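4.2 Preliminary Data

To establish feasibility before requesting continued support, the project team ran the inverse folding procedure on a target of 313 residues. The structure was first converted into the token representation described in Section 3, and no sequence information of any kind was made available to the design step. The complete token record follows.
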């Protein structure tokens, strides 16, 4: 397990968070399935040119593609590799088929299989029994795990069950709507397996749209998916999930995602993308300035408030 230096405050910039918690060779889990992807932290990890990362996620889209294309991730552990409705992800294919910029290894499970593995790691057990992988080719092929799964007979019913190994993580990135200064993290909308993925990690780095007073968090406790003692660092990153959406704050930037899918068709195009959108801006704030206020305002979510509930006794 990697070692980190102690910090006195959880609130820090994305640069400080990556410098402190992300080192070469770690197992890094990124959050978000279809929304709330922590791109502020992902882009900063690329800027700091980390290497030999095992990147872990239930569904890889632009997040994994850019990490592979930048030469940061050398191993992927997860399920689904593509750009959803926008087609294939070109950096994945170049790396796997041609070794450009490096040859990668991919250990593939189903979406549910990854969630079950995060659950096992979070609970401190070595494996999780599932039925979803029975009869699947996913468990027949392996890349870097010596044993990917184990078929056994349920000692109670005699039925077949598949055991999937726990998926421990060194560091987990999570994008959330808000937290307080202590790091009590609140998310609403689809959560996916972000809670289990974070609980499977030794260190959790959270980027949030905003920090709110603890009284606001206490008034709505059911939205708190991560308590403060689990959170190592907090990065204030408005629009930090762009080009993906963050419910209640902003919508998906389809124009940007189409641009990415097109320019990354060639290695040269992807290198221009890195310079224009990752290295060139220099920080998340620089990235937002490049996007421009008008564009960000167009993405801003329209108000649609929930009704209050009574938590009184």
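Position-by-position output of the design step:
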């Amino acid at each position: 397990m990697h070692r980190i230096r102690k910090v006195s405050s959880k609130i820090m910039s994305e640069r400080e968070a990556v410098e402190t918690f992300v080192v070469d060779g770690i197992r890094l889990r990124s959050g978000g399935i279809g929304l709330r992807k922590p791109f502020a932290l992902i882009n900063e990890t690329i800027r700091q040119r980390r290497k030999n990362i095992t990147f872990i996620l239930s569904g890889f889209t632009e997040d994994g593609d850019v990490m592979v294309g930048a030469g940061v991730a050398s191993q992927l552990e997860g399920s689904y590799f593509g750009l959803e409705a926008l087609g294939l992800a070109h950096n994945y294919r170049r790396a796997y088929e041609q070794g450009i910029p490096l040859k990668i290894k991919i250990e593939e499970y189903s979406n549910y299989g990854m969630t079950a593995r995060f659950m096992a790691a979070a609970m401190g057990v070595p494996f999780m029994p599932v039925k979803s992988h029975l009869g699947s080719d996913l468990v027949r092929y392996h890349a870097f795990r010596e044993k990917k799964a184990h078929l056994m007979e349920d000692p109670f019913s005699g039925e077949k069950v598949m055991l999937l190994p726990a998926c421990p993580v060194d560091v987990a990135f999570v994008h959330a709507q808000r937290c307080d200064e202590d790091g009590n993290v609140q998310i609403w909308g689809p959560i996916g397996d972000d809670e289990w993925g974070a609980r499977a990690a030794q260190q959790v780095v959270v980027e949030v749209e905003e920090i709110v007073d603890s009284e606001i968090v206490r008034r709505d406790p059911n939205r708190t998916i991560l308590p403060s003692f689990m959170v190592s660092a907090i990065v204030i990153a408005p629009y930090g999930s762009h080009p993906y959406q963050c419910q209640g704050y902003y919508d998906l930037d389809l124009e940007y995602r189409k641009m990415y899918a097109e320019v990354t068709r060639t290695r040269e195009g992807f290198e221009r993308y890195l310079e224009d959108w990752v290295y060139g801006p220099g920080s998340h704030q620089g990235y937002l300035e490049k996007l421009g206020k008008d564009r960000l305002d167009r993405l801003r979510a329209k108000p649609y408030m929930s009704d209050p509930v009574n938590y009184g006794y």
